[in-house]
Amino acid sequence: MTHLNSTISESSLVVATKEQVSSELAEEIVILNLKSGTYYGLNPVGARVWTLIQEPKTVDEIRSSILEEYEIDVDTCDRDIKALLEELATSGLIEIRNEATV
Fold it and tell me: Element (H or E) spanning 94, and its range?
């Protein structure tokens, strides 16, 4: 598993890839990776992040939205968002673009 935490910064730009389709089920989201044929499920908070990144967003913008909408402390929010983004990137569901690569 590739560890991206060191490359995910607050100014990293995150966007869903085109090689997937997703569908909302209740408050959760199911994503199908079209390349691998693998399904992924996201809980309501993960689903909210997924909705946010359908258009390019910085990690800071994602964190600000989650902090406004959910009762969570900043450290936990940062850790959980970066872990989710790392998992989504490793699964090929998102692209993470850093300043140096933009």
Answer: strand 94-97
